[in-house]
Specification:
The chain is mainly β. The chain has three domains: about 90 residues, Baseplate protein-like domain - beta roll fold (Phage tail proteins - horseshoe like beta roll fold, Roll); about 80 residues, 3-Layer(bab) Sandwich (Phage tail protein beta-alpha-beta fold), CATH 3.55.50.10; about 60 residues, no CATH class. The protein has a seven-stranded antiparallel beta sheet with strand order 2-1-5-6-7-4-3. Helix 2 packs antiparallel against helix 3.
């Protein structure tokens, strides 16, 4: 029978349960990883015994595995955000590096930069290390406004390029196109998986219509900030059925290389 185990590093303190899974004051440990959620998170409950006293902003690394083979896989690195203590236990919650991206706001116009270069610049402003940032689309101009966090601007760029955006297990930013999956572990029902839910919903629309705002290269490269009065040349459609309209300032018709722009 497999015996789950973990290795927990908070600050300079390490809790390793490889040899004895119960040799810890941790009574509950949860890690949530989700590409559809901006910030991965972790939560743990400690019994109020021993010398482990986590505090806000402590760097935390969590590795999961099984006591049977002593192997661990690092699943998240982040910082503790909240520490809530009562008489018998202390509840701790934290987030991955995406948390700092959600709290960083920038006002800047990028000219003649690729999406990857823009993402790297924004990550640097948030003091977050980058593991991978592929170039993607080149934008003659792209405006990042301070009404939204840099994470949301990065997510827009990822959507435009068809890229994934996430923080890896080392706490570094990844901005790249998904190509091949990596098999980490084979999961078996009743051995690793105890429950499975499948949700199916009808499609939002059968057809997508996309149109832009500017006249694009037909009026010259400097016309990216103009508003067009005729959308017919800057509209594209795919699929069939009930239409879903999507307006993007960067959608435009170009005579040369495909280089969308945004305002």
């Amino acid at each position: 029978m497999l015996k789950p185990a973990y290795k927990l590093t908070i600050g300079d303190r390490i809790v390793d349960t490889t040899d004895e899974p119960k040799a810890s004051t941790v009574v509950d440990l949860q890690v949530t990883l989700d590409l559809d959620t901006p910030a991965d998170s972790f939560a743990l409950v400690l019994g109020n015994v021993g010398s482990l006293k986590p505090a806000r902003d402590d760097e935390t690394k969590i590795e999961l595995g099984y006591a049977d083979n002593g192997g661990f896989t690092q699943v998240i690195t982040g910082k503790i955000i909240t520490v809530e203590a009562n008489v018998t236990t202390t509840r701790i919650a934290g987030f991955s590096g995406a948390d700092v991206l959600l709290r960083t706001f920038v006002e800047q116009t990028f000219e003649n930069k690729t999406a990857g270069a823009t993402v790297r610049d924004l990550a640097d402003k948030a003091s977050l290390k980058v593991a991978t940032a592929d170039d993607g689309i080149n934008f003659p101009a792209y405006v990042v406004d301070g009404r939204r966090s840099v994470y949301l601007h990065m997510q827009d760029l990822a959507d435009l390029c068809g890229f994934d955006l996430y923080i890896n297990s080392e706490g570094k930013l990844v901005f790249e196109k998904f190509i091949n999956g990596k098999t980490v572990h084979i999961f078996e029902h009743a051995k690793h998986i105890v429950a499975l839910d499948v949700q199916r919903t009808p499609a939002l629309a059968g057809q997508v219509d996309v149109f832009g705002e500017s006249p694009g290269a037909s009026k010259g490269e400097d016309s990216w900030a103009w508003l067009t009065t005729d959308f017919s040349g800057f509209k594209g459609s795919a699929g069939s059925g009930a239409p879903f309209l999507k307006e993007r300032p960067c959608a435009r018709k170009l005579r040369r290389a495909s280089r969308p722009t945004a305002r």
